[in-house]
Amino acid sequence: MKNNSSFVSELIQTIKSVTGDAPAALHEPLFNGNELAYTRECIESGYVSSVGAFVNRFEVELAETVGAKFAVATMNGTSALHLTLLAVGVKTGDEVICPALTFVATANAISYCGASPLFVDVNAADLGINYEKIDDFLSSNTEMRHGGLFNKATGCRISAIMPMHTFGHSANLQEIVIVAGKYNLPVIEDAAEALGSTYQNHHVGTRGLFGVFSFNGNKIVTTGGGGAVVTNDEVLAKKIKHLSTTAKIPHNWKIEHDEVGYNYRMPNINAALGCAQLEQLPNFVAAKRNLFNKYDKALVNVEEISFFRELPDRHSNYWLQTIVIGEKYQSELSSIIESAQEVGLQLRPAWTPLHQLTPFMQCPRTDLSVTENMAKRIINIPSSAILGLNP
Ligand SMILES: *Cc1c(COP(=O)(O)O)cnc(C)c1O
Questions:
Q1: What separation in Å is there between the alpha carbon of 220 and the centre of ligand 1?
Q2: Cα-based angle 88, 110, 278 (whole degrees, multiple of 5)
Q3: pTM
Q4: Cα 93 to Cα 211: distance, rounded to the nearest angstrom
């Protein structure tokens, strides 16, 4: 039997055998296309801010990429999430179902509406929210009353379900949408990490009422900072756009607003960068899938870890490559991350589950045993597209 330190060094050497000798960050953007040409064109046009041709073009191209009728570009993914919640009528005092194993933005957006997250556990197989646990919770802990579905314990209305596609792997949308339909709840997909991923041949973000993407610097496609909402509902798309542009009533010269809106529109200069990046999405996905195969071949030889992979009916963008350490060595998680850092490899654990964070400790929840177990064992390893460009 191996001792713990030889396990740690074998794992790190195996990762390094794929990344090569140069230091490797967790995820770096790649600007191999028209980024300079389009941002120059944008600057020369004088329209760098919230109006301009690149924003419209980015929205059209994003909608085409994911197969949605409409896309509205925003200043980041968090603001996009916030707008979708407002658009489905999430109000102060409501609860919104989401996983506890997600980036804090999911729960923050819910909080911005004055609502509370209602945390549901994830599956180990896809790290997405567990539809059976949603169904169990809703069937035994809620009642339908005038005005909606109410949590019997807290008295709060439950007003939406927000699954998240973890590290680029689609959640089980088919079953989640069925459960949501049973209780008449809208589904908002937090697809921030999953541009380029599909579920049963449909792009993620299009099964729910809304899909939300992020184009932050660490995502598969970046606009510097940015986000977007996609939907097939024209009325809701208009509403989102209106809210994102300070609820200004379109007019040649009059400045009038018909409700409290938000300054959440994506600037044109960011969209210019985004148009160039979107052209490369197929290449980025191919590179990341190639990187997955390289790691997969190398990591089979390391005992007591598993390498996280897509399920058969899904196609992943492999945004972040993910290993899961066996329970036997889970106590080594921080020593793995620190030892890797010493040799120039940036590794990262999963997010601290949100119900363990100060602002969300009091939030209602189901059993979260899978979330807690997986969070102790997940490590993301260097995942930049550039690492997968060569065969
Ligand atoms: C990146 C991300 C977001 C949005 O992040 P922004 O930085 O606001 O663009 C939302 N949810 C998840 C799960 C994310 O990973």
A1: 12
A2: 75
A3: 0.97
A4: 24
Residues 6 or more apart whose Cβ sits within 8 Å of residue 350? 101, 374, 375, 378, 380
323: three-class secondary structure by DSSP: strand
The Å distance, Cα 13 to ligand 1 centre, comes to: 31
- What is the Rg, in whole angstroms, of the alpha carbon atoms belonging to the chain? 21
Q: DSSP letter for 24, please.
A: B
Q: Residue 323 carries which side chain, given as an amino acid letter?
A: I
Please state, in angstroms and rounded to a whole number, the distance separating the CA atoms of residues 382 and 15.
Answer: 8
- The atom of ligand 1 lying closest to the CA of 190 is 11
Put residue 242 in one of left, alpha, beta given phi > 0 → left and psi -120 to 50 → alpha.
Answer: alpha
| CB of 128 closer than 8 Å to CB of 97 | no
In angstroms, what is the span from residue 215 Cα to ligand 1's centroid? 8
Torsion on CA atoms 310, 278, 98, 183, rounded to nearest 10: -90
Contact indicator for 106, 125 with CB cutoff of 8 Å: no
Ligand 1 centre to CA of 25 (Å) is 19
| φ and ψ of 135, to 5 deg | -65, -45
213-240 in b/e form (b: 16+ CB < 10 A) is bbbbebbbbbbbbbbbbbbeeeebbebb
Question: Which amino acid residue places its CA nearest to atom 13 of ligand 1?
Answer: 103
Mean pLDDT in consecutive groups of 10 residues from the start of the chain, 391 residues: 85 97 97 97 95 96 98 98 98 98 98 98 98 98 94 98 98 98 98 98 98 98 98 98 97 96 98 98 98 97 95 97 96 96 97 98 98 98 96 76
Q: Is 223 in the pocket of ligand 1 (CB under 6 A)?
A: no
CA of 131 to the centre of ligand 1 (A): 22
* Ligand 1 contact via 166 beta carbon (within 6 Å): no
The SS3 of residue 377 is coil
DSSP category for residue 354: G
Tell me how far apart the alpha carbons of residues 320 and 302 are, in angstroms, rounded to a whole number. Answer: 19
